[in-house]
Amino acid sequence: MLAIVGLLTILVVMFLIMTKKCSTLVALIAVPMIACVIVGQGADMGGYITAGIKSVAATGVMFIFAVAFFGVMGDVGAFEIVVNKILRIIGKDPLKICIGTLIITLMTHLDGSGATTFLITIPALLPIYDKLKMDRRVLATIVAAGAGTMNLVPWGGPTIRAATALEVSLTELYNPMIVPQLCGVAACVTVAVMFGLKERKRLKGTLESVSVEPPKFEDLPEEERVKRRPHLVWFNILLIIVTIVSLVMELLPPAGCFMAALCIAMLVNYRDLKDQGKRMDEHAVAAMMMASTLFGAGCFTGILGGCGMLEAMAQGLCDILPVAIMGHIAILVAVFSMPLSLMFDPDSFYYAVLPVIAVAAEVAGVPALAVGRAAICGQITVGFPISPLTPSTFLLTGLTGVDLGDHQKHSFVWLWLISLTIVLVAVVMGIIPV
């Protein structure tokens, strides 16, 4: 009963989001609430919701202040000098921009943090995409592909969780996956090139009219000149760099980094109280929409986890699989690992689902290590940037301004193909048994 209701809940939420039958926020809150009542645990719903919200509270606060901070930095013109410099170097070629987007993403995700990657990459690149009128969904997809593929690194969350759950060393689990991961990166390059060529063809008639020369301050509209602070541009760029370094080095909690940065930005750039109020009012809607959606996701995962639906789905999966299939469980997990990111959050999958599957697989003669390597081919690695169960997904969609459903529809097939590339190479190398 719990497993069936849990599966239906996830499918209904995904259907509503991708078909835009209702907003992402409403789908993430209303559907699991109804499911909780159906399974007879309505009396405990409040506790489940509270637990889920607590799990994402710190990230939600960070989202609010990060959006406000980068919004203010855009207002003062801090990104203009970087954007114009990049455009002067690479010109107006969408192909070069798409490849550059991927390279930057791969480099910034070396720390294994999706939130950090998105916060560094998207605010810097979005103005370039907008200036050339490139599709924002392309930016979201390429960044998702690069970050997802890099998330296999041994210090990334999924690989650490898999090694912990299976009680094996990280090197033993990850080292054989280095070559498949590099092939996944090559697949990302192919996707970036494909999108670059597609955008080059689509924008062929309009790129010629786009000037890479920065407009003069006096030529800007009045409302833009009021917000800009050209005499403080280098201070603001330094503030962005210090904020990101503080975030990466964990000098303060992520929320604390952006709280402090926003305060400094406001005090230095907009000393008048009315100006500060206008800046916050302008970015409040985007910040609160992103944060509220994240808290909705906390409600969703809190109810599914609290009711026991996720655990029931894990057990049910093993119960319904015939014994004959268990001998091929590693390849099945590998192939469907990316789509499974839409159904299980990282903790539920790696600490609840994976151990159960690994034990059943060992009975059928399949090493637990093979199942673990199969899982990291896509489950909350390549698949994490489209999963509504990971907070950083909402940061990606919020910063790019792309609807979650649109992002999933645009990215799903390409991310799955990248994951399958990793799987294919791992199978050919004998890392994952067929």
From TrEMBL:
<feature type="transmembrane region" description="Helical">
    <location>
        <begin position="349"/>
        <end position="370"/>
    </location>
</feature>
<dbReference type="Pfam" id="PF03600">
    <property type="entry name" value="CitMHS"/>
</dbReference>
<feature type="domain" description="Citrate transporter-like">
    <location>
        <begin position="14"/>
        <end position="376"/>
    </location>
</feature>
<feature type="transmembrane region" description="Helical">
    <location>
        <begin position="177"/>
        <end position="197"/>
    </location>
</feature>
<feature type="transmembrane region" description="Helical">
    <location>
        <begin position="29"/>
        <end position="49"/>
    </location>
</feature>
<dbReference type="InterPro" id="IPR052180">
    <property type="entry name" value="NhaC_Na-H+_Antiporter"/>
</dbReference>
<dbReference type="InterPro" id="IPR014738">
    <property type="entry name" value="Citrate_transporter"/>
</dbReference>
<feature type="transmembrane region" description="Helical">
    <location>
        <begin position="99"/>
        <end position="126"/>
    </location>
</feature>
<dbReference type="InterPro" id="IPR004680">
    <property type="entry name" value="Cit_transptr-like_dom"/>
</dbReference>
<feature type="transmembrane region" description="Helical">
    <location>
        <begin position="382"/>
        <end position="402"/>
    </location>
</feature>
<feature type="transmembrane region" description="Helical">
    <location>
        <begin position="285"/>
        <end position="314"/>
    </location>
</feature>
<keyword id="KW-1133">Transmembrane helix</keyword>
<keyword id="KW-0813">Transport</keyword>
<keyword id="KW-0472">Membrane</keyword>
<protein>
    <submittedName>
        <fullName>Citrate:proton symporter</fullName>
    </submittedName>
</protein>
<feature type="transmembrane region" description="Helical">
    <location>
        <begin position="414"/>
        <end position="432"/>
    </location>
</feature>
<feature type="transmembrane region" description="Helical">
    <location>
        <begin position="232"/>
        <end position="249"/>
    </location>
</feature>
<feature type="transmembrane region" description="Helical">
    <location>
        <begin position="255"/>
        <end position="273"/>
    </location>
</feature>
<dbReference type="GO" id="GO:0015137">
    <property type="term" value="F:citrate transmembrane transporter activity"/>
</dbReference>
<feature type="transmembrane region" description="Helical">
    <location>
        <begin position="56"/>
        <end position="79"/>
    </location>
</feature>
<feature type="transmembrane region" description="Helical">
    <location>
        <begin position="138"/>
        <end position="157"/>
    </location>
</feature>
<keyword id="KW-0812">Transmembrane</keyword>
<dbReference type="GO" id="GO:0016020">
    <property type="term" value="C:membrane"/>
</dbReference>
<feature type="transmembrane region" description="Helical">
    <location>
        <begin position="320"/>
        <end position="342"/>
    </location>
</feature>
